[in-house]
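dude i think i finally got it to work??
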Amino acid sequence: MFKMIYNIIMRGDNLRLLVIEDEHSLRDSLVKGLRIKGFSVDDAKDGAEGLQKSIDENYDLIVLDLNLPKLSGFEVLRELMDEKPNSRVLILSANSEIECKLKGFNLGANDYMIKPFHFEELEIRIRLLLHREFIQKSTVLTLDELKFDTVARTVSVHSEQISFTAKEKALLEYFILNMGRLISQQELIEHIWDESVDIFSNSIRVHMSALRKKLKLALGYDPITTKIGEGYVLNEKS
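look at this
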């Protein structure tokens, strides 16, 4: 059981994180490292910016420093929990005092890590906080003859593997998990991309087009329907 959960939580696709950290070099390292691990990551350099993004956007988890300019981490946490009490927050701080830890937990934080830290431990803690997002009855998603192994990250039709990019897999997984439901472009941006994407660019359209071509080639039909001005719907062949 533990091995299965461990394998499942090693995925980061479709998860959007916010890193609120004023130290530029650390913030940059965290963002780059977490993106390499498959997360979509936004960042903020002070408490005011971090709080605004936390309220305006939907993040699966927020990594929060405490010693921040403009608003302290505690102030950010307090106001965030007033606005979005179900937010997941991992505090990352150099303050190891028990009083500081207790204050963070009392304000609603889910975890507390002391600086300096090992990135590998931070990654595991983030995934443990989020692993319930991945626990399903089966780790293999299906779309007619297509099978998507969400642990191995492989897609196949009649046991023949089909090549998809990481972004295409993230899109496919999200569509299968939301089969039959209208999904807007804005929803895709919020769950599959981070804030670096230009909503006026062709990036989303290009990835969607590539995904649909591969699905049509593999299945013999295009399972995704475009609702002009509204979004997309994925359905199995009727």
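The longest helix spans residues 203-219.
im so relieved honestly
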